[in-house]
Write a structure and sequence with these properties.
The protein is α/β, with parallel strands linked by helices. Helices cover 36% and strands 20% of the residues. It contains 19 helices and 20 strands. The protein has helices at residues 2-7, 81-84, 105-118, 155-160, 167-177, 181-199, 216-224, 243-253, 273-282, 319-323, 338-347, 353-359, 362-379, 384-404, 413-416, 423-426, 428-442, 467-476, 481-491, and strands at 16-18, 21-29, 35-44, 48-56, 62-70, 73-80, 125-129, 133-135, 138-140, 147-148, 204-209, 236-238, 258-261, 303-308, 325-329, 456-459, 462-466, 494-495, 504-508, 511-519. The strands form 5 sheets. Strands 6-5-4-7-10 form a 5-stranded mixed beta sheet. The protein has a 5-stranded parallel beta sheet with strand order 12-13-14-11-15, with helices on both faces. Helix 6 (181-199) crosses helix 14. The relative contact order is 0.08.
């Protein structure tokens, strides 16, 4: 019956397709052009039919959908038209179930070309996407209007964005788990991912960290069960992957959340976490070029949910990286019975994703976000980017709660304020200055004449620090003096010399050298130190 239905949309010409396969009678002519016999030309031992032409809406390249009957069921595969048009490349489709070999490859190519050419005006033409997310008001994969024509390497990930179990069972089971603020925020970060494109915000990182056994991985699995199978290796992935694999996966998910477990396993592949965070939150990969063409630039606008045993933001992290991360330390156990919860979400998943997308009212979401963003900036001492990420999380939490758990009390700014970094904490120059103050206090003996390793001198509320020493101790912690000296001068933490330079030529302990004159905050009672005086630190 399906074979008959498919053939209604195409023109087979002189080809015959039935349960015995694909064939046609080919006449044999003599030199005078007279038919003297006929032979059967077989293209395939199983029924095979071109059923649609897919045009990618981004690249405008075409692919061909082939349907074939094998193992008592109809199956489909999507391939580049160039593969199906060449007898040498069509053999690759044998790996995907098509019965093709070197003997029938040429005939099968001729059959497909004949049918497609004769059916151009009746063969279905479908728009296609190779990535997930928003396109012209539709959301992949929750739409029938757009086909999927992604690369084979993402087929398994695409299949993971599926449904199992019922929505009622899932929402009922998850409701008591959401009493944990850490887990609720993790789920909100996942719900926020499709909103980033709508609102026009940048990607952000939600990092859940703490000791082993706290339930971080299971919390990430619960969050990813919103959209599909959260099992490890499916929508929840280990971070033990190459940088290119990670960025390719983010580009494929595009507007769906990326969940990575055990962040510390990726240390060796990145100079530091700062580089990773800046790369993924830019939302665009660097351009690449093959030998004959410039490849399409990969892009994404999604949330990144990471788990790990240590914070990804360090003392010397750049302000850009710190700005883009909402970091939550798991001080208490998030989930009591991790095995029970993990087993449940492996069998009940993906039921909330489609209704969540379908019920989103873009105007309401945008208004809620604007309100939350403004209130965060009004009531906290944080930055615009931190406020933007947290406003997305709070907006997503309110939107999802109203849909699935209407009796819940919405999260408020006081609930999450402790997870927001202050403007000073984000400012690298402030953190660098605080580090130098602590280093001076810790090594106060080095500012006396008796020290075997002289750093400089302390007098009248100033610290004269040897320039080489200062640069060395700052570099050891990841700070760069040249990067912060201008800000220090503007903030009154550093005094330039009479020529406007950032160091002074000074005689300290009978040795003349270049010293940076650092102003010691709240130390206006400092006086010149002599040998018998107790140091103020």
């Amino acid at each position: 019956q399906k074979l008959d239905a498919i053939q209604d949309n195409i023109s087979l010409g002189d080809w015959v397709v039935d349960k015995k396969g694909v064939r046609r009678n080919k006449p044999i002519y003599n030199k005078k052009g007279e038919q003297i016999a006929a032979t059967t030309e077989t293209a395939s031992p199983i029924p095979v039919l071109p059923t649609a032409i897919l045009e990618n809406v981004d690249t405008h390249t075409e692919k061909l959908e082939l349907s074939f009957y094998k193992n008592n069921r109809w199956q489909t595969l999507i391939t580049e038209r160039s593969v199906a048009a060449n007898r040498n490349t069509i053999i690759k489709l044998a790996d995907r179930g098509l019965e093709v070999n070197s003997d029938n490859a040429g005939t099968l190519v001729s059959y497909i070309a004949d049918v497609v050419a004769a059916s151009l005006y009746c063969l279905p033409h479908k728009p296609a996407k190779s990535v997930m997310g928003w396109i012209d008001g539709e959301f992949m994969p929750y739409t029938d209007k757009i086909a999927f024509d992604g690369d084979e390497q993402f087929k398994h990930l695409y299949k993971s964005i599926s449904q199992k179990g019922s929505l009622d069972e899932w929402t009922e089971f998850v409701l008591p788990l959401r009493k944990s603020l850490d887990l609720r925020l993790c789920m909100a970060a996942a719900f926020a991912s499709p909103l980033i494109e709508i609102i026009g915000e940048n990607p952000f990182v939600f990092h859940l960290w703490g000791g082993t056994g706290s339930g971080k991985t299971v919390a990430a699995m619960v969050a990813m069960s919103i959209f599909g199978d959260p099992a490890m290796g499916k929508l929840t992935r280990t971070m033990n992957m190459t940088a290119n694999s990670m960025l390719s996966t983010a580009a494929f998910l595009r507007n769906l959340p990326f969940a990575g477990d055990e962040l510390q396993t990726i240390k060796s592949r990145w100079t530091n976490y700062d580089n990773l965070i800046m790369c993924i939150t830019e939302g665009v990969d660097r351009g690449r070029m093959s030998y004959d063409k410039v490849n399409e630039t990969r892009a994404w606008k999604c949330s990144f949910i990471f788990t790990g045993e240590e914070p990804c933001i360090k003392q010397a992290s750049g302000g850009g990286a710190k700005n883009r991360v909402i970091e939550v330390e798991c001080k208490d156990k998030i989930i009591e019975n991790g095995n029970l919860v993990a087993n449940f979400v492996r069998t009940h998943f993906g039921c909330a994703g489609k209704p969540y997308i379908e019920q989103i009212k873009k105007e309401d979401v945008a208004n809620t976000y604007k309100t939350m963003f403004s209130k965060i900036l009004e009531t906290t001492d944080t930055t615009d980017k931190q406020a933007g990420a947290m406003a997305l999380i709070l907006t997503a939490d309110r939107t999802a709660s109203s849909m699935f758990w209407p009796d819940e009390t919405p999260l408020t700014i006081p609930d999450v304020q402790r997870y927001l970094s202050s403007a000073k904490e984000v400012d690298v120059s402030e953190r660098a200055y605080a580090f130098v103050m602590n280093a001076i206090a810790e090594n106060s003996i080095n500012f006396t004449a008796e020290s075997r390793q002289t750093w400089g001198s302390l007098s009248d509320g100033f610290a004269y620090v040897n320039k080489n020493v200062l640069e060395r101790i700052m570099n050891s912690e990841g700070f760069d003096f040249d990067a912060v000296k201008t800000k220090w001068a503007e903030k009154g933490y550093l005094e330039k010399n009479s020529q406007g330079r950032y160091h002074h030529s000074r005689l300290v302990h009978q040795t003349r050298a270049a010293y940076v004159k650092i102003i010691l905050k709240n130390t206006d009672k400092f006086v010149e130190i002599d040998e018998e005086m107790e140091l103020p630190f």
